[in-house]
Automatic annotation (TrEMBL):
Lineage top rank: taxon: Eukaryota
InterPro entries the record matches: Cyt_P450, Cyt_P450_sf, Cytochrome_P450_monoxygenase
Keyword Transmembrane: no
Residue intervals passing through the bilayer: none
One Pfam assignment: p450
GO molecular function: heme binding; iron ion binding; monooxygenase activity; oxidoreductase activity, acting on paired donors, with incorporation or reduction of molecular oxygen
Cofactor dependency: heme
GO cellular component: membrane
Protein's name in the database: Cytochrome P450
Amino acid sequence: MPVPNPLLAASAVGVAAHLLFFKKLEHHVVHRRYVAFRRHVAASAGSFALGVYMSQSPILNEKPGVHISWVSAISFSLQLHACFLLGLYASLLTYRLFFHPLKKFPGPLSARISTFWLTSYNYNDVWRDVASLHEQYGPFVRIAPGELSVRDPKAVAALHGPKSKCDEAPFYHVIKPTTSLHMLPDPDIHDDFDDRTLREYNQRASAYRSVLLDRIHATKGEPMDMARWFRFYVCEVIGHLAPGAIFNILQTSDNHWAIDAFGSGLLPSVHDICYRPIVHTLVAGMTSILYELVKHPEHIDRLRQELAPLVQDSLLDPSPDELEHLEHLNAVINETLRLHPPVHTTIWCVTPPGGVRFGPPGGVRLGHVHIPGGTIVTYPQYAVSRSKSAVPLDAFIPERWYRFPWMAVYKNTFSPFVMGVYPWAGDNKRLALMDIRQVISRLVWTFDVAFAPGEDGGSFEGVALDTFMVAYGPLILTLKARQGVQL
């Protein structure tokens, strides 16, 4: 019986491994096992080479009775592994280019065949790259072999609406095992953010706002990084709500050692307090609003006119209910969050294999476009908020939210606080908006705000990083107390 060519057999095994194993199942759940698997493969290669060296197999040895050299044995073992990988990746690339359910969707060639294109931008301004891809390819772009970026505002209801049957993306399955069950709130013990709870929170936060204003006033108009000071303020407030997490960083104006330590992952509990979504949203939101107001000072005057009726004895201390109904203040917040959403890509989801029937069984149909089941879909808020189809005039125009509704076509799908079947938005959104209104209104009423000498705000967006939630750069401003205004 003739001996089969072992190299061709190894290639065939690689093809079979892709078609029967790697193309199926949820491999992201057991990603750590693949690291161990590669170690076993390396060990087996050495063992196989030893076996070939010690044997008189006709597979390699054409002259029985003559020992095979170590070089020949190792070379043959490496050739087998190389042919296996060649067959595996040849099948993988062929499938992704010509037979994948997403083959009809446009996108960069490198993105259609590998996830390296997407991961290479994780520490850069990936949101701008995705937005430019949408300008080039249209509302549906394939940004990874099994992932679509959808810039169509109509996608929100189908993918992230309350009736959506889309599931969480694999991204969340990877990080879930690191979340302690003890960190989950018990609804029987922890109150929701109802009106009473929000008022209590506002009273607690009011003391820290006063400290923030005092520290700003003490600078006497010297340049200061407001992104840094907002982070101090928010961590102080949220830390006050967590037992035993008082940092006193507003008074010292220095990072607490624990806050520095969390950056290296040494103290996950501090990370939970200071960089949970609500904290990041507050810091990014406050900094972005101040940035846009300094660029457009005419809106500071508009805000002061709107706030004037709430001033008593030259002191502004409004209630949350009073600020909630100020049109221009809320429009400034919405317009800033449109231009600078804290989460540029919102959440990922996976289309269901069946159940969401906007077209053929399985997947989701948006208009005339069918998204197959099992597709990872992301809704890039930055790209949507800058698209001409959603926002006819892409400029800082707060009036679009209450005076010119035709300028906010996608108003009903606007959700800078993330959206989905399991939204973060709910109670935390009310808390975040209340704090943002209070801080911004007090700042614009109490201080004259401007860029520091030699600054134009370029570093604020110029060095921003997309780490799921965008991390903006420093915002160096001067804040001088207004005459006749109490702190």
